[in-house]
Design brief:
alpha+beta; Arc Repressor Mutant, subunit A; Dna Ligase, domain 1; 3-stranded antiparallel sheet; 18% strand
């Protein structure tokens, strides 16, 4: 995933926010994760480039980037948060709890679910970025084969 620096700058200016080197560096560090990346990984990337940036600055900036809709945050299966650049096309993730492989799921696959939530509960889902954990087909087949031979 990559970010469009021009879009970032326009959005920041439209919101009356300053475009700082620190904010750009943190956005770049999220982008360098090429998908879900932990806070620790982001902090490490930032510190490699600019050791003077502290942990609280990274937390505050990630919070701002999430509020602006440039970065999405999700709870990981380990309990921490993972971050990723929001792409042009909304999508969701399936995470295999055995091999840790992630699969992207297009928004269209879950749109009916969001509409059903709206119809049945009168609740409009605004954070449309889900991570569902389970077991992928490859791991399930491997476990089935191991059970047959053991």
């Amino acid at each position: 995933m990559t970010h469009d620096e021009i879009t970032f700058m326009r959005l920041m200016q439209a919101k009356g926010l300053r475009i700082t080197e620190q904010r750009l560096l943190i956005l770049d560090a999220v982008c360098a994760g090429k998908g879900h990346t932990t806070f620790g990984e982001i902090l490490l990337r930032v510190k490699e480039t600019e050791p003077s940036i502290d942990q609280s600055t990274v937390y505050r900036t990630l919070d701002l980037l999430c509020k602006l809709g440039l970065v999405a945050a999700n709870a990981s299966v380990s309990g921490g948060m993972v971050y990723e650049i929001v792409g042009q096309t909304p999508h969701h993730h399936l995470l295999c709890s055995l091999c840790r492989r992630e699969y992207a799921v297009p928004q269209a696959a879950l749109q009916a679910f969001f509409e059903q939530i709206q119809a049945e509960y009168g609740f409009t889902v605004t954070h449309k970025h889900l991570m569902l954990e389970g077991v992928c087909e490859t791991c399930r087949q491997r476990d089935d084969e191991a059970g047959q031979t053991g």
